Amino acid sequence: MHVTTEKFHGRAKKAIANKNLQGGLFIIGKIFTAMRDHAMAQMPEFEALRDQARDIKRHTLENLDTYLQQFEERVIENGGRVHWARDGEEANRIIAQLCKEVDAQTVIKSKSMVTEELELNPALEAEGLAVTETDLGEYIIQLRGEKPFHIVAPAWHLTAGEVADTFYEAHKAHGRTERVEDKVKLVEEARIVLRERFKKADVGITGANFLIAETGSIALVTNEGNADLCATLPRKHIAVTGIEKIIPTLDDLALFWRVLPRSATGQDTANYLSLYSGPRREGDADGPESFDIVLVDNGRSDMLGTAVEDMLRCIRCGACLNACPVFTSVGGQTYGSVYSGPMGSVLTPALTSVSQAAMLPNASTFCGKCEEVCPVRIPLPSMMRHWREEEFSKHYSPAAQRWGLGLWAYAARTPWAYRLATTWGRKVLALMGGKERVAHALPFIGKGWSEKRDLNVGEGATFLEQYERRKRRGGAKGERV
Amino acid sequence: MSAREDILGKIARSRGASAGTAKPAPLRPALGAKEGAARLAQFCHLALSLGCTIVPVREMRAVPASLAHALGEQSLKGDVWLNDEPQLTALGWQEAGLSLHSERGKDDLDGVISVTGALAGLAETGAVIMQSSAVHPFAMGLLPDVHVAVLRTDQIVAGMEDIWPLARKAGGNRLPRALSLVGGPSRTGDIEATLVMGAHGPRSLQILLVGEEAEAALEPN
């Protein structure tokens, strides 16, 4: 998994200046959070379901090896195969090998964040396979060579006009000569082009929203129905997912199917909630000849028993992205990781390293909205704080910041130094503020502040000075001063 | 060491530190626990709000004529692809003026009108439950432009939990290969968050709801 999180600042500036992008972000921040609230109001048990979702995931993670082995047994009973991959390279090698087994040339895919994490598409293309994403948003960003903008809505940073340009260029080869900007026509155009790919593909690759230990099934959630076509039409179906996606039973799945669409898009249900349990059965009228599941670790087992273990409960609904004031200002591509927003800021350092991804846990105001909306109640802010502490203790943060924090820590622990600094600081600021009590240009570290805004300077004495004065005026021990 | 042993070993070594969280028995929300007429009415209400159409039919025998009438109203031709469920194939389709087609290839099913039964209807969400079987090619619910699902009112279940026993029974003591809760026609919101129907699956999902109480359930209160 490659990350470019160090370019966060530069990309954030560009994103804030991009009017089209800001329009899309407004919809996510306002409309999607409102739709989620509405969906929650329709189900009075929703808070209790969130508690249960958290506990089921906790229980499953505490018994992860047991449930994974149970799942594997059931898959084999159903006539499928399970493959284990320690890291991205191993996963990609296994998947390419599975495609070769059936002499595949063309692959259709439904949206899977794990395969984005693995960078599967370039790995398969290097083996000579033609890979087509079929989720409309993923298809658009695949044509443009971009990373997903949002884990649920990958192409929401684009206007219909930009999509029209992309389709016009890409679909010339399919005999389409008209540039259309109407959204209904754009969807129709993609449907026509992708339908042919669906019918011809040798292999269908999907992710899995959940793995069911009880039955050896994979559960998929889509609105377009593309995952179902991927799992039904080609000769071979390969499902690629992380080991943490497992849940014990079908009744547990009912709970997560109630919680996921409501949290993700505010829908009471997604259009296609599907379970796939193996290859075509004897006598079945259709279905793939083989069914392979690739279970990917890629850093997940290392998270068990650590301060970020709770992150493995994540069901990738995107509610924390929609609620986040930072995400809804800068958008997903600013983060430089396929996982963005609060969940990405916790997960990315865990899957890569703090030194590579330290910028992300710092991209938070700690307002706590992410934790408030998380369907499995992941304490995202405290885990971001954990990464910040790691970053500081491992000396990854910039020298000026470390020096400043060190100075602050010294003052906070040394009363005389603190008093000296605040007393003189107040006097200097009061002088700079003059009669209007507003400082326009601060020196040193304050420059960053005053370049963009003024500083209202305080009036009168510091709290400690006032406290001392009142105490001297006669506040006896134990009395209010 | 194999990757499997490696991963399972790592997981096993990390165990012990965590406390034993008991797995709760998931609760069933009121939305998924409706009975009788309320269940049927909720199914109709939610299926319609998902963008399905519902045509009430008094009895199974009347299904072909109702379908012919419904297709006529939409100016659709009476060429239909029927799956192989005995309860459907036994009906008089030709007498109702419909032409049946039996080709099953991917190109044959692309863009047509399919007529199938369903495993169940789900009152909790308004979804139609489809499953793969010997008599139902699963692609018949995916490739056509119009999917007509024949559903009896006594097939409507309250909550998701009620689907599992039905599906296991149909699959011979285990789940069928494919099982879908289809909540209306395929749609996407991927361009500018605008909802557009007919993304990859059928553009319309038309339910023929068979039973004496079907018509009353559709009447607004």
Short description:
The complex is a heterodimer of chains A (481) and B (221). Chain A is α/β, with parallel strands linked by helices.
Question: Please, could you describe this protein's structure?
Answer:
- The complex is a heterodimer of chains A (481) and B (221).
- In chain A, 52% of the residues lie in helices and 11% in strands.
- Chain A starts with 7 loop residues before the first helix and ends in a 9-residue tail after the last helix.
- Among the domains of chain A are: 43-298, NagB/RpiA/CoA transferase-like (Rossmann fold); 413-472, no CATH class.
- Chain A is of the alpha/beta class.
- Chain B is α/β, with parallel strands linked by helices and 221 residues long.
- Chain B has a domain at 59-184 and 201-221: NagB/RpiA/CoA transferase-like (Rossmann fold, 3-Layer(aba) Sandwich).
- In chain B, β5 and β6 (127-131) form a beta hairpin.
- The chains are: A alpha/beta (481), B alpha/beta (221).
- Chains A and B meet through α2, α3, α4, α8 and α10 of A and α1, β9 and β10 of B.
- β9 of chain A pairs antiparallel with β9 of chain B, so a sheet runs across the interface.
Strands side by side in the biggest sheet of chain A: 1-10-7-4-2-3
Instruction: Output mean pLDDT of chain B.
Output: 95
Strand portion of chain A: 5-15%
Average pLDDT, all residues of chain A: 93
Outline the low-pLDDT stretches of chain B. none
Overall shape of chain B: globular
Helix content of chain B: 25-40%
